[in-house]
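Need tokens for this chain, all 718 residues.
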Amino acid sequence: MGKTLVLAEKPSVGREIGRVLSCKRKSDGALYGDKYVVTWALGHLVTLANPESYHERYKSWNMNDLPMLPEKMKLVVIKKTSRQFNVVKNLMNSKDITEIVIATDAGREGELVARWIIEKARVKKPIKRLWISSQTDKAIKDGFKNLKDGKAYWNLYRSAFARSKADWYVGLNLTRALTCKHNVQLSAGRVQTPTLNMIVQREEEINKFVPAKFWEIKCSAKNVEFNLLGKDGNSRIFNKEKRDSLLDKLKNEDGVVKSVEEKIKKINAPYAYDLTTLQIDANNKYGFSAKRTLQIMQQLYEHHKAVTYPRTDSKYISKDIVPTLKERLETITSSSYKGFARALLRTKLNISSRFVDDKKVTDHHAIIPTEQTVFLNDLSSDERKIYDLIVKRFLEVLSKPCEYKEIKVKLSVKDELFNVTYKNIINQGWKQIGSDNEDIKNEQIKFKKDDKVKIDKVFYNEGSTKPPSRYTEALLLADMENPKRFVKESKMKETLSSVGGIGTVATRADIIEKLYNTYYIENKDGKIHPTSKGKQLVELVPEDIKSPILTAKWEMELTGISKGNVKEIKFTENIKNYTKELVEKVKKDNVTFKHDNITGEKCPDCGSNLLKVNNKQGEMLVCKDRECGYKRMLNRATNARCPECHKKMIMVGEGDKKMFICNNCGFKEKLTSWNKKKEGKSNQMNKKQVKNYMNKMKKDADKPLNNAFADSLSKFKF
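Here are the structure tokens for all 718 residues:
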């Protein structure tokens, strides 16, 4: 009797599936059992071929060779993981294997990982699909009981392949065209360039902003402050004469209570987490980058089995998950939230359409805790922070709305209306969970309709308008998810909403990282600034590649391909024609690129001037000549705190000359001296340090080696 081969996306997942399927015998790159053989990829084992694979002339970058539009895209095995590919290929073609189960991540990119391997291995065997949203034993067992026919996901694969080809055509051609035109390593793409454009536009708004002074008139009565209601609904006064005129009019006048309005209001709990909103909250609360949050989520999902599938764009769950909610509540062991979970178990859960809606669940439902008990001591500090965010949100969603009475008091003084609003709590509901929610305090109402009120004083507060705040990763993610304000056409606004913005939940973190790595943006104290290179790129690229509309149109068509409503070949031909137009625009453009970060230092390899650039790691010098590729760190950002002012320090120098420097207060100390002091405090790791070190080693071992997005970056010298 033949066996079933199960293909997971990475070793850690493969080991867990193998354990559940009783595959106990280990061999090179696989686990063997009586019925199943489990093997794995390392991220992508197969990728699209480089341009030079199609023709010898593409080995050198030449404008005359563009555009590159091969008819049939070639697949190649990634060299650094070719050994594992051969293991998988041999197993797929083994006579003992009668069918293949795709168990890669349940999404468009996971489908691509598996299908490319199967295609490159040239295997023609029955295919089934494991489609699960969590990595618990129960989910894996249930998934294998309900395997889907692989044919049902063929269109999803065609969609993924079409996206990959389109990014190859547009990205590689536009990148080569810009680089050849300006002799500077430049790259552009249909997601990264609109994202960069948002940052550049924000910087322009900040630079052009002129602050305006304003005043807000208030009056006090019975120790209560009332605010003047502007005739146009705006309480700010921008005219000094108008301010003074109103103050004179109101001076020494008394007031009459015109109305006291009472309304019962509700504040619904926030929606459950999808990946982007979780990344936003993690950045706002803990300063985690989008990439870091996703890495932590992968550990919580794969290793700890604490949460459901992370790469989801849905904030809803389907009805079939509802029966499991109480079991999930029972597994919450966090001391901060255990009491709330137990209280919910004793009540009727708040199951509303804001949480349960089959029509709004995409490939995967919202991120929620699994049914598996989590031992909190097994989590690292950062894992605990993210897990707590998810648990807290889960409890809030299942809780009743916050209910309060809103009382608005309007006061007339010399025909001018003032108001004050009270909020008195009736039922805290979800707001009782967590201490960081805004408190609504009960207040004693001191006024009744038609009361005559003595005004103690009339005064004003002065302020000035503020420029738009610079992007943080949280704000940037929010605009990537909802970029409607960057688009004028109402139809395109609707399109962007329907496809979930630009990029996907799985790729946005990589896009932001790429902008850092290509020196288009830099991070200063948590704020994102565009570099000169980034600003210039936005000026150099064709106009439509800067707009979110392009990616919205692509995603609509790709979704159509995945549903069988759009033909892949038509989409691809349109992309080829579009690529021709882009290259032609670059060729005809007369704008030039200027370096404004040239140093006086020469490259030791080729003699060209070196450029000073910043990235997340610190400050570095890179060679101006794109063909050279020389780079050298000047200083590195560290987590070491200055003993004087407690700010993070940088490290400069090489070898024995390495030194910590604090840019805030000027403190300096050699690394050797610093280390001696540390050794004097503790000559051995404590238990927590050992545990954190072992966790790091495990993460490094389980980390996927290949990523299609990262692999595409390796083709360029930045």
